[in-house]
Structure formats: C-alpha cells, structure tokens
C-alpha cells in the first residue's frame, strides 16, 4: 500500500463504550498496527444535548483498559486536530461556504409542518418518502428576503439526478444505490449546526482517512456520505462495514442479552487481554481459524480485513469466560497476583499478615480455579480473616469421625513441634499422624481444612497451610478445636 493507512474510531460520547464500539475500535487499531499506519480517535460530540464529557472519559478509559492506544486524538493531539467535533466548527463552516459558493447547497425554508404534510401526501400516493425539492429553485432575492424576515432554514445538498452511488465494500462486496433513492441531504440544521453525515465526511477528508471501518449499521449513511465526497471533490476512502454483534438468539446484542458495556466486563473480573482477544474473534478469524488464543503481537501480524466475515458474530459469554480462564491459567503466579491485587484489596482483613511470597503462592493456588477475577472475593476471603463459623455439613462430617477434638489436639502437638512448615513435610507429618492414630488420612485432612477455612473445599490443604504459615495455622486450629465435635 503506497499511502500510509490512516483509520479512525469515531465514538459519540452519549454512553459508555459498548461491546460493539469496542470491537470497531479494536478492528481499526489492529488494522492500523498491521500496516504500520495511524489510528485516530475522534470524538463526535456535535449532538450537544446527548453528549457528555463524562462519557468521553468513560470511552477513553474503556479503550485504555483494553490496551488500545491512539496515535492522534484526545490527550495525544496530532497534526489534524482538534479531535473533538465540537471544536471543529470553523472547518465545517469553511466547507459549507465553499459548497454554497459553488451552488451545491440550497436554503430550504420548509417548516416541520410542511415536511409532515409532504410525507403524508407521499405516503397516500405510495411514492418514495423524501424531500420533493420545492425550495431548490428559490431565487437569491427570495432567499435573502426570507432570511432577513427571520425565517429559519436548513441547508440541503443539491442531489444529482440519475447517478449511481456505488462502492466496493471490503467486507460486503459491491454495494449500489442510485442518487434518486436518496434525499436532498440536510447538511446544516436550522440551529446552524452541521449534520452528523456532513461532519463525518469533512473530518474524514481533513484527517486523511484512507479506510473507514465501522459497523454495518452505517451502510445506509455511506451513499449519502459518498455524495458529499463528490460535492467536496475529494477521493473516496475504502469502506469496510463489519457485521453486527448478535446475541445467542441472533438478535442484535442488547441489554436483554446481558452486559453490553465494556466497563461491566471489567467490573465482572474479566482480564482486558482476554476480553480483547475474544472481541477480535467476533467476526474475524486468523489464517489458521482453529487458533483462538492470540497475543497482541500475533493479532497485529494476523489482522487483515479480508478475513472479516460478512455475517453477524455471536457474543457467547461462556466462550468469553472460557477464554478468560485460559488466560488466567497462563499467567505466572506473580503476574496473576498483580492482576488480582485490586480485587484482593477489597477483601476485609487483606493482607491478613501474609507476606509477598505467601501472596504469590496464594495466587498460584487459584490459577487453575478462577474463571474471572471477581471470584477470588468469595473463594479466598478466608485466607485473610480466621473463620468464626464452620460449614454445617462439614461439622456433621466431623462429628461422624468420632473423637475429632482429641484428634485435633494431638495433631496440634505434632504441628507445634514440626521442624518445617512446608507442603512436603506437612503432608508427611499428617500421613504418619493418621497412620499412628489408626485414622483415615482424608478424615484428618477434612478436620484441618474445616478448621483453617471454615469450608469443605479449598485448594490443596498442605499448600494452604504453607501459605498461612505456622502461627496462623496453629491459632486457627486451636480455635476450631475449642468448638469442634468431641
Ligand atoms: N459517531 C458514529 C457512531 O458513534 C460513528 C461514525 C462513523 O464511524 O462513521 O456511531
């Protein structure tokens, strides 16, 4: 490719970063990185009523959480700024002046009532519903008189007649419309603000965008935008309309399918890399389509638009969760601890006197067990505060063992004298103790586990004991011995 690739993600800050938006941003970013091009972030905040600064921040935070970085845009600037549409009015004004001067726009004074009547009449006559062009022929004097009289107006694009409006969409193939199917597009609204389609085109031209990669819900905007490119005398970029993300029922992903904003997945304890990997596979696959776990650099190397599917992609939470667990399994205990730390910090009592090596070991114990980070909150809380209650079924089982309290007290004596509080020696100690007592190893393990955690299921007992260390283990078992069935 001779011209450097320049792509953009252009969110409207009217809500949080949505899964669909995140996937669009991701595809643009991967495409830019694959071709060593430029990824531009542009905030489309012309809808002043619905746009909120807090949402701009939320979107940027969401993109950052996913590990996406932009070469031009908010915070980083760049040669084609400003990157907020609300700050680009002079650019739109200049383009409007030019088009007016060239006679490509006209003033339309039709009121909402007139347009409504027109629509009704067209509906009754069963003809296409569109602006009938009645203000096209107003002469200059009349236009000036009506403006002076304070009539409100919009500016419309003089739509060419009997022209094909076509493009070769990278993912959808050739798409064809005729200009007669289209309306005389409103370019400037009655409040003087440029319309969405107009601002997008002016910005994409200004920012030298070479490829417009966006959701297929924008396909209907594209012929309108192409007419604007033509009017402005600018070459068309490539367009790639990517398939919608669907729920399992094949309806467009919405709240009723579950969480739709990225931040909710962050809060649910998904790993950003895993989430990004999963998003990348929504409507795209690498050359070897059986490969599912792909690092960032592998995605950069592999991502091309010819591998984007033209059909909808199904968002499958179970698959995402599976992928998240796969990522967790691959982290070293130290890396996992770093990822878990914000979650662990929410647990009352954390760190409960556990030092760094113990915490790393603890993280290692959950590598194979966690599917999402938030699970650590309920899986490992007992490491940091000694249990005060014990699982009822566990107590029943302890009662059946018979003489549990005495057994535990004799084990405590052995543990106090244990030369080394590490997994191997501890296991050997408990085994020989059980044997000497003529008890089942499993029964002794059960008592210890219940006493240490209050639970009947934990990671391996001896690993747990090594994490807790001698003092905590002895103290917890002594407390349990006091209430344990006799
Ligand atoms: N601002 C538009 C949106 O949030 C995107 C415009 C575009 O990609 O052309 O849907």
Nutshell version of this structure?
The chain has helices spanning 19-34, 53-65, 89-101, 112-124, 140-148, 196-206, 221-232, 262-267, 272-280, 296-302, 317-330, 333-344, 356-366, 375-379, 392-401, 404-417, 423-437, 441-453, 461-483; strands at residues 6-9, 38-41, 105-108, 154-157, 164-169, 173-178, 186-188, 211-215, 238-242, 245-246, 313-314.
Describe the structure.
Catalyzes the attachment of glutamate to tRNA(Glu) in a two-step reaction: glutamate is first activated by ATP to form Glu-AMP and then transferred to the acceptor end of tRNA(Glu). Pfam families: Anticodon_2 (PF19269), tRNA-synt_1c (PF00749). It catalyses: tRNA(Glu) + L-glutamate + ATP = L-glutamyl-tRNA(Glu) + AMP + diphosphate. There is one protein chain. The protein is mainly α. It folds into 3 domains: 1-73 and 243-330, HUPs (Rossmann fold), CATH 3.40.50.620; 89-242, Rossmann fold (3-Layer(aba) Sandwich), CATH 3.40.50.620; 333-483, Arc Repressor Mutant, subunit A (Orthogonal Bundle), CATH 1.10.10. It is built from 19 helices and 11 strands. The protein has helices spanning 19-34, 53-65, 89-101, 112-124, 140-148, 196-206, 221-232, 262-267, 272-280, 296-302, 317-330, 333-344, 356-366, 375-379, 392-401, 404-417, 423-437, 441-453, 461-483, and strands at 6-9, 38-41, 105-108, 154-157, 164-169, 173-178, 186-188, 211-215, 238-242, 245-246, 313-314. It has a 3-stranded antiparallel sheet. Strands 1-2 form a two-stranded parallel sheet. The protein has a two-stranded antiparallel sheet with strand order 5-6. Helix 7 (221-232) links the parallel strand 8 and strand 9. Helix 16 (404-417) packs across helix 19 (461-483). The longest helix has 23 residues, at 461-483. It is elongated and about 110 Å long. The termini are far apart. The site of glutamic acid (GLU) has 7 residues, from loops.
């Amino acid at each position: 490719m001779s011209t450097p690739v320049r792509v953009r993600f252009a969110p409207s800050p009217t809500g949080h970063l949505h899964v669909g938006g995140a996937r669009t941003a991701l595809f643009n970013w991967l495409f830019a990185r694959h071709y060593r091009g430029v990824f531009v972030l542009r905030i489309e905040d012309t809808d002043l009523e619905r746009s909120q600064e807090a949402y701009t921040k939320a979107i940027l935070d969401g993109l950052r959480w996913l590990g996406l970085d932009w070469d031009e845009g908010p915070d980083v600037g760049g040669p084609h700024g400003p990157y907020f549409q609300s700050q680009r009015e002079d650019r739109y004004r200049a383009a409007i002046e030019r088009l007016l001067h060239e006679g490509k726009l006209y003033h339309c004074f039709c009121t909402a009532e007139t347009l409504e009547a027109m629509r009704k009449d067209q509906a009754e006559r069963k003809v296409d519903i569109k602006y009938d062009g009645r203000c096209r022929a107003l002469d200059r004097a009349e236009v000036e008189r009506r403006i002076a009289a304070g009539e409100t107006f919009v500016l419309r694009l003089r739509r060419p007649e009997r022209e094909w409006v076509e493009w070769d969409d990278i993912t959808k193939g050739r798409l064809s419309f005729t200009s007669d199917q289209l309306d005389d597009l409103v370019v400037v609204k009655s409040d003087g603000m440029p319309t969405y389609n107009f601002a997008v085109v002016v910005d994409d031209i200004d920012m030298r965008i070479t490829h417009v990669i966006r959701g297929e819900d924008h396909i209907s905007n594209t012929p309108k935008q192409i007419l604007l490119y033509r009017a402005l005398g600018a070459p068309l970029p490539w367009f790639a309309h990517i398939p919608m993300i669907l729920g399992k029922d094949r309806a467009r992903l919405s709240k009723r399918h579950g969480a739709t904003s990225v931040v909710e997945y962050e809060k649910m304890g998904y790993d950003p890399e895993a989430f990004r990997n999963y998003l990348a596979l929504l409507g795209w696959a690498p050359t070897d389509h059986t490969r599912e776990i792909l690092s960032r650099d592998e995605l950069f190397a592999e991502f091309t638009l010819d591998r984007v599917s033209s059909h909808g992609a199904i968002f499958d939470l179970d698959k995402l969760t599976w992928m998240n667990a796969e990522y967790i399994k691959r982290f070293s205990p130290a890396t996992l601890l770093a990822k878990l730390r914000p979650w662990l910090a929410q647990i009352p009592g954390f760190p409960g006197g556990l030092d760094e090596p113990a915490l790393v070991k603890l993280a290692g114990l959950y590598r194979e067990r966690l599917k999402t980070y938030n699970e650590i909150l309920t899986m490992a809380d007992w490491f940091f505060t000694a249990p005060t209650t014990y699982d009822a079924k566990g107590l029943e089982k302890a009662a059946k063992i018979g003489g549990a309290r005495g057994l535990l007290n004799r084990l405590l004596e052995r543990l106090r004298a244990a030369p080394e509080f590490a997994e191997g020696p501890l296991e050997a100690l408990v085994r020989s103790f059980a044997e000497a007592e003529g008890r089942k190893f499993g029964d002794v393990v059960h008592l210890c586990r219940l006493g240490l955690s209050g639970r009947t299921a934990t990671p391996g007992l001896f690993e747990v004991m090594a994490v807790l260390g001698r003092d905590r283990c002895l103290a917890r078992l002594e407390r349990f011995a006091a209430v344990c069935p006799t």
